[in-house]
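[recover] target loaded
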């Protein structure tokens, strides 16, 4: 699975989401099953602008990654979401670090500061 762009959704922006500020993200797939043009994640809580927990954000990311392959919320969609989560946990449990495309480790380090 590949993603061209990963962007932050403004936590207070209702555009393209109607009135549902509970939406955690969205995925715009390019070729079903292969790649997403864009995945957007809502990193912060509406009004307070506090960052969501890492676990919360990972689950949203796995959810949106599953949409690359499966458009609807079917049993196979949720099975893929669980598989992505298990794969991530396996990598972490073996003490391996996940790196970005520039070779920098993802995870660990310091928490981001609080406000906008």
């Amino acid at each position: 699975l590949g993603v061209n762009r990963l962007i932050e959704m403004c936590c207070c922006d209702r555009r393209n989401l109607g009135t549902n500020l509970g939406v955690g993200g969205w995925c715009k797939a390019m070729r079903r099953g292969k790649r997403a043009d864009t995945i957007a994640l809502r990193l912060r809580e509406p009004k307070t602008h506090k960052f969501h927990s890492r676990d919360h954000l990972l689950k949203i990311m796995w959810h949106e990654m599953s949409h690359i392959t499966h458009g609807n919320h079917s049993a196979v969609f949720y099975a893929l979401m669980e598989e992505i989560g298990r794969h991530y946990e396996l990598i972490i449990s073996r003490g391996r670090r996940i790196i970005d495309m520039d070779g920098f480790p993802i995870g660990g380090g310091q928490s981001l500061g609080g406000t906008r």
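[recover] notes: The helical segments are 54-69, 75-93.
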